[in-house]
Structure formats: structure tokens, C-alpha cells
């Protein structure tokens, strides 16, 4: 190979190597990615080196980079993604991650602040309170939402220096709101006090339009209240503030309901609705029916409305279905107690009627009377005129006696 050809080949290979190195180096991007040029600065706008960056997005990352002396780093991300960039630095901090929406490349400047800490102690009338809530907001954004330890204290992680809105409270206690300036390591003590507010419970049956008040409904709040609604379907209870409660409403014949109720620092109310437990009932027009005659039965739901197409059986034998008025005639074919059963949508009900003979007595009674008369024993009447002497005979005897007395008088 000639010297010229060798030089040309070498030049082409060098260009290929340089191109490949550039494609895989800083600032490179794939066909579906873009490069963010991220600059980290302090509150004065001064660039910061040695800031660790971690970029993530839905389905991608993390991409980790460290800023150079000029405060910059190149971060490759998916094009069009919403990218969250977190910053970590030995002396600076950022309370909230930085979000790049619909990433398309270009320059991104992220500001951080000097780090500080705050130790907050929450106390009540009885002293430091454990499990009290500590919330801190910076520029309207939530930064801290934690609870105190057994000694009533909570110490924040490193947060930005500056002014914070500090809110402390606990279930059953009023909120304490104040401004806290974090300019290094600071300590703050707040005092909160117990309080209750009036809560009114209203219970109604929304089967009706408009809903109707339900009296004598039981309202239970575990550990707080167990009360009963009055004539208006309401009842009021004093309950501790700033807590969330499970409220259960029950009444015999109704399905129970459980509602969540948040009680803050002013009077509030809970409107609960219940409905009767689905059921059917069956009733007969008569308790006693002459054998061979039908009895009319009516099937209704839990609210007394007619149930159409309910299956009706007599002593286990199917008779038919109710009409649109919930009515069906059931023949009574035997003496004694007869059970009539109705069924609809898996719910059943039954009633009992008594079959009696045509003389108004059951077959057993009629049979007993016939047996007694067959012995030939005469039946005594209450008049005491002797065997077989009926009312007509007695009347004739009286008339004859009167006539004889008249003749003797003549």
C-alpha cells in the first residue's frame, strides 16, 4: 500500500473514532432523548460546584451527574417527559425537587439555599406531648409533616434557611400557628390546648323523596359517643377537635351505615341516610277459612309496597304468583293450620290460616259432634223440659196452660 493511501485510510479511521467518541460523550443524546444543561446556583445567583444531581421521570432514570466548577452538568433525559431533578450539596439544600415539564433540552437553572435545622417542642397543660403533629410551610409549600417523639420534640432534617409558617396540634387539641425563622440551628416551643365542638348528627331514610327523618336511630362513635336520634331524626354531641372519626348508624330493621367524619375547630354536622333492610311480608285477609274456599293473600316489601310476581306456595305446594298488586287467592283444601309461604328475590315470608268445616268448626270438632249424636243419648235443653222437649214444645205447653186457666175462671 502506498504512503498516500495509508495516510487516507488513517485519516478516515481517526474521523470515525472521534465521531464515535463524541456520540458517546457528554452532551450526547439518543434519537428519542434530549440534553438538559443544568446550572446550580445559590440565592445570590453564584454557580455551585460539586452539587449532585439525580434526574428521574416516569419509566426512566435515575440519571446522576455532578456539577463542574462552573456549576453546570449535562443531563440526558427522555424528550417530552416531566423530569424531576433532585439536588444534594454539602452546604446547600433545596426543599422541593425541581421539575422540568415536557423536556425539550436547553438550559435549566436550579436555585438552592444555605441549610438549617429546627427543633420543635410541643406541650400541653400537662407538659410535653408525644405524637403531636408538626407542620412547616415555606412560601406556601409544605415542607415538614411529622409527629413529635415521646419527649414532645421533633428535629427537622436539613431545610432551606428562611421564614416558615409553623403549625402544631394534636387530636383533641387546637392548632397553634406561628412564624419560625430558620437561620441555622434553631429551637422553638409551642403550647396547645384541648377543646371540643358541637357536632349534630341527622339520620334520614332516603327511600322517600324528600327523605324522612328516622327517630330512635343509634349513632355510635367508638370511645366518644353512643346516642339516639330524637323526633326530628337529629342528636347533638360534643366531640374533641382536629380528629377523624368512624360514625356508625344503626336501627333494627334497617341496614347499618358507617361514615367518616372530620371534626375541625368549628361546629359541624353529619347527614347520614339509611334504608330498611330488604324483606318481604305476606298477610291473609282472614285467619280462619272454610275448607274448600280461597283466602286472599297480599305480599309486600319492607316499605309495605306490593310485590308482583312473588311465588306463593301452600304447605309446600306451589299455587302461583302474585299480580301487580301483590295479590293471589289461595284455596284452603284441608282443615287445621295451613302454612302459606311467599318468595321473591331470595327473600321469604309466611303466614298461617286455619281451615274449618262448613259449620264453622274444624273437621276434628265436626267429627266429634257427629260421634256424640250417634250414641242416641238425648240432648238436654237449658229450659229443663225433659228429653226431646224443644223450645216449640215449651211454647205450646204454656199456651195450653193459659187456656185451661181461663176456662176454669169462667
UniProtKB/TrEMBL annotation:
Transmembrane regions: 384-405
Keyword Ribonucleoprotein among record annotations: no
Keywords for this protein: Membrane, Transmembrane, Transmembrane helix
Keyword Cell membrane: no
Position of the signal peptide: none
Low complexity compositional bias, start-end: 349-382
Ranges for region Disordered: 345-384
Protein name (Swiss-Prot/TrEMBL): PGF-CTERM sorting domain-containing protein
Organism of derivation: Halosimplex litoreum
Lineage, top ranks: Archaea, Methanobacteriati, Methanobacteriota, Stenosarchaea group, Halobacteria
